[in-house]
Amino acid sequence: MSQPTSGVTRSQDVHRRLREDILGGRLVPGQRLKFPDLCRDYGTSVGAVREALVRLTGEGLVRAQAHQGYTVTPLSHDDLRELATARVEIESVVLRLSMEQGDTQWEARAVAAHHVLRRTPFFGPDDPDHPGAAWAAAHAEFHLALLAGCTNRRLLETARGLREEAELYLHWSAPFGVENDRDLAGEHRALLEAVVDREVGRAVGLVRDHIAHTARLLITCAPDDQWPAPPTRGDGEPVG
Questions:
Q1: Domain ends where: 22, 40, 74?
Q2: Which of 59, 74, 89 is where one domain is finished?
Q3: For the chain, how many structural domains are there in total?
Q4: How does pLDDT run across 128-159, given as a tens digit for each residue?
Q5: 150: left (phi over 0), alpha (psi -120 to 50) or beta
Q6: Which of 58, 71, 102, 133 has the fewest CB atoms below 10 angstroms from its CB?
Q7: Domain extent at residue 60
Q8: Spatial distance between the Cα atoms of 155 and 29, rounded to a whole number of angstroms
């Protein structure tokens, strides 16, 4: 059982571990998250688990339902379409503001984040069908770095939250990143170049296409009935 490192609170450690288990597929979409089970599995208190679940709810990875408690966010085409539409509109605004307000240090952070993304292997060592954890982290950092020049905290937090929600769909959709007619690395490179050159219209168009293309791919390649279902016992009752 791992223990929190120095300077990290128990709830922060539980949040990190729960988040890794959700994005790593060990806790599947729709699975109920019961306090007794989580306290036992993560070796912690009800208070620490509650704080972690509240944070994950804010990130869109967990949902709270009246009289049912918490569940890992379930996946569906309708939800993905709604999420993609929100991301296209919000990220377009935030990226535009970021390019208008960002300074040289912001540019440097974006360039460095892209360098890390480009050098990080797409697949992890244990799963040849999904993006590895290191690549997923580098990918998220690159896109967040592009938005970080925006000084409107509320808009920036909204964009970050929507992007967090999208991580579940990327994990559970094997075709992402390996389709024959798409150059994902080229999309990232073109986006960075447009941002650094302060070509606002081009950059906004590229990020809108980038988000919309991924959503269309996931919908086409993953029918609703192929999204993972929460594990059940023999009597059909959800586990967890």
A1: 74
A2: 74
A3: 2
A4: 666 777 888 899 999 999 999 999 999 999 99
A5: beta
A6: 58
A7: 10-74
A8: 27
Instruction: Give me the torsion for CA of 234, 235, 237, 240, rounded to 10°.
Output: -40
For residues 45 and 36, give the distance between their C-alpha atoms in angstroms, rounded to a whole number.
9
Question: Is 236 within the bounds of a domain?
Answer: no
For 77-96, how does the pLDDT look when each residue is reduced to its tens digit (9 = 90+)? 888 889 999 999 999 999 99
Percent of the chain with pLDDT over 70: 82
Query: Are 113 and 67 part of one and the same domain?
Result: no
With 80 as the cut, is the pLDDT of residue 234 above it?
Answer: no
- Both tokens of residue 82? 């709604």
Strand partners, 146: none
Q: Which residues, in sequence order, are CB contacts of 116 under 8 Å at separation 6+?
A: 138, 141, 142
Q: What are phi and psi of 228, to 5 degrees?
A: -65, 140
CATH code assigned at 134? 1.20.120.530
Global pTM?
0.76
Domain assignment present for 207: yes
Most confident of 11-20, 61-70, 122-131, 191-200: 191-200
218 and 139 in a common domain: yes
Q: How many other C-beta atoms are found inside a 10 Å radius of the C-beta of residue 127?
A: 14
Q: List, edge to edge, every strand of the sheet that includes 62-65.
A: 32-33, 69-72, 62-65
